Amino acid sequence: MSLAYIGLGSNLSDPQAQIITAIEKLKQLDGGNVIKISSLYFSRPMGPQDQPDYMNAVVALETNKSAIELLEQLQHIETITGRIRKDDRWGARILDLDIILFDQEVINTTRLTIPHYGLKQREFVLLPLAEITSDLFLPDGDSIDELASNIARNGLKIHSKLS
Ligand code: ROI
């Protein structure tokens, strides 16, 4: 089994409901087991500011799939929850599911970058991740706790508990 951390984000169509539904889908994933769920966080948009605020959370998922198989499972959940994948990397979205970490694997392909390329710059990923882990280190040796305690909060706050 591998341990993956999944980042969830939404800023359209009732973001809280999108995240809750997505977590239910993650719980039903073939070959997977949701181990931990962070609080639901309210965050300011990174990128263009003319879009709604976000809800973000991070889930720890044990899985017997490979990283690429997990990516396909996550893209399926995004599609059935209404995300139309288009080329607006920085625009508003109904549901985003990103693999943040997959064991200590380092993957750099056109389809997949693990650890997630934005991890160290994103308070809405680092803080929820730090909430559900302790003594977690990235493949490059950086400490999640340290990164999380040094990053600017940018208005990030806990909206509600999910578990
Ligand atoms: N900003 C926030 N706060 N949360 C996100 O999940 C998020 N996702 C994105 C971009 C557009 C980079 N901004 C975000 O994809």
Entry summary:
By secondary structure, the protein is α+β, with helices and mostly antiparallel strands. The protein has four helices and eight strands; from the N terminus they run βαβββαβββααβ. The protein has one domain: Alpha-Beta Plaits (2-Layer Sandwich), CATH 3.30.70.560.
Would you mind describing this structure in some detail?
By secondary structure, this protein is of the alpha+beta class. The protein has a single domain (2-160), classed as 7,8-Dihydro-6-hydroxymethylpterin-pyrophosphokinase HPPK (Alpha-Beta Plaits, 2-Layer Sandwich), CATH 3.30.70.560. It has 4 helices and 8 strands. It has helices at 15-27, 67-80, 123-132, 144-150, and strands at residues 2-10, 32-37, 40-43, 54-63, 96-102, 107-108, 113-114, 157-160. Strands 1, 2, 3, 4, 5 and 8 form a 6-stranded antiparallel sheet that branches. A two-stranded antiparallel sheet has the order 6-7. A hairpin with a 4-residue loop joins strand 6 and strand 7 (113-114). Helix 3 crosses helix 4 (144-150). 7,8-dihydro-7,7-dimethyl-6-hydroxypterin binds at residues 9, 43-47, 54, 56, 90, 96, 124.
